[in-house]
Amino acid sequence: MSRSPNWQRGMVRVDLEDTVAFVTFDRPEKLNAMDRAFWPDLRAALAWAEEMTAHCIVFRGAGTRAFSVGGDVKSFAALSTEDERRAFQIDAMQTFDAIAQCALPTIAAVRGLALGGGCEVAMACDMVIAADDAVFAMPEARFGLVPGYGVLRAPSVVGAQMAKLMVFAGERLDAESALRHGLVQRLSTADGLMDDARALARTIAAVPPAAIAAGKALINAAIDPDRVALSVETVTALHSTPESRAAVSSFGEKA
After folding, report:
1. Domain 6-193+209-254 homologous superfamily, CATH
2. CA within 20 to 30 Å of 248's CA: 49, 173, 209, 217, which one?
3. pTM for the full model?
4. Active-site option among 140, 171, 233, 243
5. Catalytically annotated residue among 51, 84, 120, 253
6. Residue 120 designated active-site
């Protein structure tokens, strides 16, 4: 019996078109904000796509306003102990790593806002194609935090100085600026984004999978796992500061 070409768990949906898996962040009413279940659900989606013998994965956000605005701040407020905050951070970092280390090539098709974790997912992907209305930023500093994966990945993507500007000041990059700084590899229009992403994915999917997997593994070989552990401990500690707890609580009251 044939298996369904569709899969969904929580806010993560996967639609398989031939050999291309489209992973959709499906919470448009919240601008695709990532709840606590998002992280293991996204890892499960990646595993499903590999099991279904997809040759390429495209990430996209539901709706027209956002790829994803990042973590749901209410989920941060619900982390009451240091162990919970550490476990949350490990969960998120494992998911970014699963994207980066996935044997399949990954494309982020970004329309609208890609903030916080949304920007980090884009950075974890092998390449990014952005609509002309795309905006990238890592605004965690406003909550007394730093983007745990972004601080590791951004320097090699946009350069150390721009990474600091994004992390320290929450600098926003529009699509053209993101292209100039290396975060985006191709530009599209809002209406043409998915057609362009689909065409790129099909071109890549036609390449022998073994060659893709080998090339990706060799390019990624320089990632230092010790820096991941340092990031987890640093962000866990920041979550516990009075400034961060107050900022997160204040935001949650307004939401």
Report:
1. 2-enoyl-CoA Hydratase; Chain A, domain 1 (3.90.226.10)
2. 173
3. 0.90
4. 140
5. 120
6. yes
